[in-house]
Design a protein that fits this description.
937 residues, 0% strand
């Protein structure tokens, strides 16, 4: 039992005792008063009033600093209060004043054992001169110290010596039986329990040890009988009551467990084990608040104890780790587990918990190295197989993962967690149908598990089964209506299903239960942004950051909002802060790379991408961004090599191979993309995204017939794929059948009206020369669901129709929400120029100040300078823009105009030839041809 009824007074009492001991020689008092205080202290000590005894004994020592009996009794009282440093000081002072070591040998041995100082105990506490119970106690504790030092033979001999000293004493058996159980000698432990039954049949400790042995052997019914017997003898036997409650919890007999836990809450209020069990029962009932409160109590109890005491106590170390793990304080949990495994390396439970924490941190290497000794000792341990399987799953070693997880499922009797992990490994191998079956079985076995539900719902959403996903999320909440993770999941599904209003209400419901529940708050912020309530979202984040100034997640969201509002510099600053706060997390760093790219800073983006790439060499998402950064920086060779490395890492993961294939195709490497495609189809011939990639590869190569065949394969594998109409339209465009393309894209927009479909349809209408129809499509989508991307596209269509005033209004509407967007400011400046607005130059300069490396922005400033007569200034700017973006024909035309005006006819002709080479239309193309004709005369 952990007797910690006065832990809260430890520091105060300890300081008082030490200060009293230090000042004793200077105090003159009354010996008679000292004796009276001592007698009262002794009476209180005998009655169990240790705090009262401590006060009276201090009073006695103030009156008579040399009272040896007061020093000794003070040490004993403080020891019972677990005031270990103060107890040690009292005993040391007693020894200095002349107390014989024999008088305090037994309590001092207990003190040193509690502090984990086994070597000091063996050195300083001798059994010589001891008799009776004290001799048995010291011999037993010395034997236990030998076991902690790793000398099992000496320990066993010590226990035997203690038994021989008094064969009728149960004391040695209380440590000997656990020693034998820990060493795997269950037969020997059983023999000792039987001996104990003969010599102390009415001792509660006897029956508790017998129950513990049954418990270890899995004889749970027999264990319950013996725990009951122990508690019938001594209802206050804390160890037996905690163990019985634990057994009830394991058997999911929570009502019976609560009876014991309520008793412990009243009679052993500072018992961390019972508090931890209360947390488990509360969590299982969906009472997250109660679970959190109980875990906080456990953590507070263990953390408040002296470090040396905790470091020597295996159970306390484990409880501290479990509590902090439950509170998501991973670093503190790891501290306890590291200490535990250094001192008790054979504790397999601690190894499994530490491996689980490493998995939560995506540290698969440490997880494997931590759990492998468990598999060596117990190859069929289901949790160890599950953890090792998950680690291999993280490495995308799907074959090894499947073997381990199949074994875990077998030994866990198709337990939900093993089925869950096995389903994930099967997803990785492309066995989607089997994977979904196992995930559904896992969800049915544990319908309240949010992790399982999240995985299953994600698969449903990926396959377009939104109705199933919503139904499952709603069932989760119905099962655990107070579960914050379940509410957060339901809100996320509703948001993904295009129900932002309903999603916001669910997130608000979660926050009403716990305003500090960060996942719901951050998701609510994202939904508010989607609903256009940007100011409210930003204010919510600012309020949160006042309370949690180091929350990198909130910094990340602030960066995203600032970016969306066009405040690029501010957005980049927030993302830098988020990335620096979470160097081990890829998401903030990736967002920073993308923000730098959008800001026209490819070199800075590449530097940031390299940094995050080095930290996450096997993360496909990270490596994809690194490859794209190489492309943006003009290094396609390095990009290609990065994508090839990704191909190797992905093995035969069909989804990953398709994503890499798209990157290869976008970079202009169709042959490499074809290789990715074949790997994906080898893993799964009916994988619809692979057939979609095949269409795009064929179209890139100009192989329309091959694209049509791939379209049929896509139709066969996914007849309800919403992308079918889009691909039909794209193939029709590639074959030169504009009307058919228009028909398919119009059908797509009617069937699945969203911003992307509207943009696709308007792009085809524009390509066919029907700018009015393109404008009408965008205005329809604007009326259905106005978004910044639609306003932007509408502004550009209006520009092409020379509807300058309307385009200006569209851009100004965008700038209300994004006043610092360099792209929008740049387009507004061009429109203002056409309207002969004197503010055009100021607008362009502002855009350039926000995005000094963006070639389009530089081009606009240069063009306006040229039109104002500043040929030299314009020429420098336009040369800069052309070097940054040689593939943009409009920039080359503008540079040609500047060159022509400065008399550099040859250079101007070369730029015009490049701009007009492939017949692409661009703004100013007619003027470029006219200039070319003039120069050729």
């Amino acid at each position: 039992m952990f007797d910690m009824s006065a832990v809260a007074r430890r520091i105060r009492l300890g300081v008082c005792v030490i200060s009293v001991a230090a000042s004793l020689p200077a105090v003159a008092g009354d010996p008679a008063k000292a004796a009276a205080y001592y007698e009262d202290g002794l009476t209180r000590f005998d009655k169990g009033d240790n705090p009262g005894a401590v006060i009276q004994l201090k009073n006695a020592l103030q009156q008579d600093p040399s009272m040896l009996s007061a020093h000794v009794l003070l040490g004993r009282a403080l020891l019972k209060e677990t005031e270990l440093p103060a107890a040690e000081a009292a005993f040391e002072q007693a020894l200095k004043l002349g107390v014989s070591p024999v008088e305090i040998a037994a309590p001092r041995a207990r003190l040193l054992m509690m502090l984990g100082r086994s070597k000091q105990l063996l050195r300083d506490v001798s059994p010589n001169g001891l008799m009776g119970d004290d001799l048995v106690e010291v011999l037993t504790l010395r034997a236990k110290a030998q076991s902690l030092e790793g000398d099992r033979a000496a320990a066993l001999a010590g226990f035997e010596a203690a038994i021989q000293t008094d064969p009728s004493s149960p004391r040695p058996y209380l440590d000997l039986v656990p020693f034998l159980i820990q060493g795997g000698d269950l037969k020997g432990a059983d023999a000792r329990v039987q001996t104990l039954m003969r010599i102390a049949p009415d001792n509660a400790d006897t029956w508790n040890l017998s129950a513990s042995l049954h418990h270890v052997r899995g004889r749970l019914s027999e264990a319950l009988v013996d725990y009951d017997k122990a508690l019938s003898i001594d209802p206050n036997h804390t160890d037996a009551r905690v163990a019985r409650a634990s057994l009830y919890v394991d058997r999911k007999q929570d009502d019976k467990a609560r009876v014991d836990l309520d008793y412990l809450a009243e009679h052993a209020r500072r018992e961390p084990r019972s508090a931890y069990l209360r947390a488990l029962v509360a969590a299982r009932a969906g009472d997250q608040e109660g679970a959190h409160k109980a875990l906080t109590e456990v953590a507070g109890l263990v953390d408040s104890l002296p470090g040396e005491y905790v470091a020597a106590n295996e159970q306390l170390l484990m409880l501290g780790a479990l509590a902090h793990h439950g509170l998501e304080s991973r670093e503190k949990a790891k501290e306890y587990l590291d200490t535990l495994l250094r001192r008790f390396p054979r504790n397999l439970g601690a190894r499994k918990l530490l491996a689980a924490i490493y998995l939560d941190e995506n540290d698969n290497a440490r997880a494997l190295s931590t759990v492998e000794p468990v598999l060596e000792a117990q190859p069929n341990d289901p949790q160890a197989n599950l953890l090792a399987g998950r680690a291999h799953l993280g490495y995308r070693h799907f074959i090894q993962a499947r073997e381990l997880l199949t074994r875990a499922v077998k030994y866990l009797d198709k337990g939900p967690q093993a089925l869950f992990a096995l389903g994930l490994s099967q997803l990785g191998m492309g066995d989607t149908a089997v994977a979904i079956d196992n995930l559904e079985k896992a969800a049915a076995a544990d319908p309240g598990d949010v992790s399982i539900g999240t995985a299953l719902i994600t698969v449903y959403m990926q396959r377009g089964a939104t109705t199933k996903a919503l139904a499952h999320a709603e069932a989760l909440v119905a099962k655990a209506p107070k579960s914050l993770p379940a509410l957060n999941l339901l809100g996320s599904v509703r948001a993904a299903a295009g129900q932002p209003d309903k999603a916001a209400k669910v997130f608000e419901q979660a926050l009403a239960q716990d305003p500090k529940f960060a996942p719901a708050l951050l998701n609510l912020v994202r939904v508010e942004v989607e609903l256009g309530r940007v100011d409210g979202a930003e204010a919510r984040l600012q309020a949160w950051l006042k309370e949690e100034p180091n929350d990198a997640r909130a910094m990340f969201e602030m960066g995203r909002i600032a970016e969306q509002l066009g405040r690029q510099k501010e957005g980049i600053d927030w993302l830098r802060k988020a990335a620096s706060k979470q160097p081990g997390q890829a998401q903030p760093a990736l967002a920073l790379v993308e923000a730098l790219s959008r800001a026209g800073q490819p070199a800075e983006a590449l530097t940031a991408a390299k940094e995050v790439g080095l930290r996450h060499p096997d993360d496909l998402g990270v490596q994809a961004v690194l490859g794209q950064a190489y492309l943006a920086a003009g290094d396609p060779k390095a990009a290609r090599q990065t994508f090839r490395n990704m191909t190797r890492i992905a093995e035969f993961d069909p989804a990953a191979q398709v994503r890499i294939g798209r990157l290869m195709l976008g970079a202009g490497f169709p042959d490499d993309a074809e290789y990715n495609l074949q790997k994906a189809l080898t893993a799964r011939t009916d994988f619809a995204p692979a057939h979609a990639l095949a269409i795009d590869i064929a179209l890139h190569r100009g192989q329309v017939d091959t694209a049509r065949k791939a379209l049929e394969a896509l139709r066969k594998s996914a007849p309800n794929d919403p992308g079918l109409l889009r691909y039909q339209g794209t193939i029709a465009l590639a074959s030169g059948d504009g009307p058919a393309a228009l028909k398919h894209f119009a059908q797509q927009y009617r069937a699945h009206p969203d911003a992307r479909a509207a943009l696709n349809l308007s792009a085809v209408q524009e390509r066919l020369g029907d700018l009015a129809a393109a404008e009408a499509t965008l205005r329809d989508e604007q009326a259905r669901h106005a978004t910044p991307v639609i306003y932007d596209a509408l502004g550009q269509i209006l520009e092409r129709q020379a509807k300058w005033a309307e385009a200006r209004d569209a851009y100004r509407r965008l700038l209300r929400d994004a006043p610092d967007s360099p792209g929008i400011l740049n387009r507004l400046a061009r429109v203002q120029f056409e309207l002969k607005d004197a503010g055009a130059m100021a607008t362009a300069d502002k855009a350039r100040a926000l995005a000094p490396n963006d070639p389009r922005v530089i081009d606009t400033v240069g063009w306006l300078r040229l039109q104002s007569g500043d040929v030299d200034g314009a020429l420098a700017l336009l040369r800069d823009a052309r070097l940054r973006a040689p593939g943009l024909p409009e920039i080359r035309y503008h540079l040609a105009e500047a060159l022509a005006r400065s008399g550099r006819t040859g250079e101007a002709e070369a730029e015009l030839a490049a701009a007009l080479a492939d017949g692409r239309g661009f703004r100013g193309a007619d003027e470029a041809r006219a200039l070319q004709q003039r120069l050729q005369k």
